[in-house]
């Protein structure tokens, strides 16, 4: 399959991460399409209004919703992590378009990487912090 943006000259890109998800976002001047892994964004995000709202929040904040086509390669994790990774990647790509966008996006919290990840399991415990039941005798 040939990439739909191979002939375009102006491509803005950004990478977003959340939990174990990674999203590589490419912005191309266009009509406002969202394509994730070759599938329309609404279908990929299972028509969830929350995931769609989170993914496109930086564009909506700047009022650029229908001015750029968004192409995403998302991998790892689940839909929640991928939606947040798309949001971060999109915000970083918008900063490369115009450095003045950074002020607005930073104030809205879109440029902050959420560093929370699952804590590792420790030996002697059932989960990361859950201990086996204590027996007195």
From TrEMBL:
GO BP, sorted A to Z: translation
Highest taxon listed in the record's lineage: Eukaryota
Gene3D superfamilies with a match to the protein in the record: 3.30.230.10
Pfam families: Ribosomal_S9
Keyword flag Signal: no
Keyword Ribonucleoprotein on entry: yes
InterPro entries: Ribosomal_Su5_D2-typ_SF, Ribosomal_uS9, Ribosomal_uS9_bac/plastid, Ribosomal_uS9_CS, Ribsml_uS5_D2-typ_fold_subgr
Keywords, comma-separated and alphabetical: Plastid, Ribonucleoprotein, Ribosomal protein
Cellular component per GO, a single term: small ribosomal subunit
Single annotated GO MF: structural constituent of ribosome
Entry's family note: Belongs to the universal ribosomal protein uS9 family.
Protein's name in the database: Ribosomal protein S9
Organism expressing this protein natively: Gastroclonium compressum (Red alga)
Gene symbol of the encoding locus: rps9
């Amino acid at each position: 399959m040939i990439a739909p943006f191979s002939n375009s000259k102006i491509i803005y890109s950004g990478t977003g991460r959340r939990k174990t998800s990674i999203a590589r976002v490419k912005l191309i001047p266009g009509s406002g399409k969202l394509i994730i892994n070759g599938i329309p964004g609404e279908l990929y995000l299972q028509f969830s209004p929350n995931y769609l709202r989170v993914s496109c929040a930086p564009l909506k904040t700047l009022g650029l919703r229908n001015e750029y086509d968004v192409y995403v390669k998302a991998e790892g994790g689940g839909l929640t992590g991928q939606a947040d990774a798309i949001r971060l990647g999109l915000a970083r790509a918008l900063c490369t378009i115009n450095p003045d966008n950074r002020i607005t996006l930073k104030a809205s919290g879109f440029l902050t990487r959420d560093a929370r990840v699952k804590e590792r399991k420790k030996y002697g415990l059932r989960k990361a912090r859950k201990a086996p039941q204590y027996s007195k005798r």
